Amino acid sequence: MSSERVILFNKPYGVLSQFTDKGTEGSPRPTLSGFIDEKGFYPAGRLDRDSEGLMVLTDSGPLQARISNPKYKLEKTYLVQVEGTPDEAALAALRRGVALKDGMTRPARADQVDAPDDLWPRDPPVRFRKTVPEAWLRITISEGRNRQVRRMTAHVGLPTLRLIRLQVGDWQLNQLRPGAWRFASATGA
Questions:
Q1: Domain that holds residue 60
Q2: Active site residues
């Protein structure tokens, strides 16, 4: 039996993906410690403060490295609300990989999807402009550069309005509500 333990957490918007706030802002910002009180667990990868969704935490250093190190090419899937209407050229560019300031991205899987009907509201709400259409994409990447999905969609003319991570490897968000967590198998099954 493996001694590796895993927690799956649905990180709400505005929460830092760490247990302490080392920032220089005047008041402390919400962190993982406000939601998870299990000792010895550490995030395996990051999720930006303005992003939501699945975070994987583990008490195993080797497992943490396998999840977060780009050399293992662990896939991560996101639901992305974008400003604008994607055309086939934009989706094709995401699928090929785009040239960012830090180099070409690996090819991604990218498809336009219907707006989710069971998605929780975000606090604060996403800005809405009557004159600008919005769309939803499902994007899967196999690397994890800083703000990568946001930079990729901006590169093809589709600024990200909302970003929700649905899956890391075999671990899935499923029906886990914002701020909730559960234990999971270390294999992701």
A1: 6-70+170-184
A2: 48
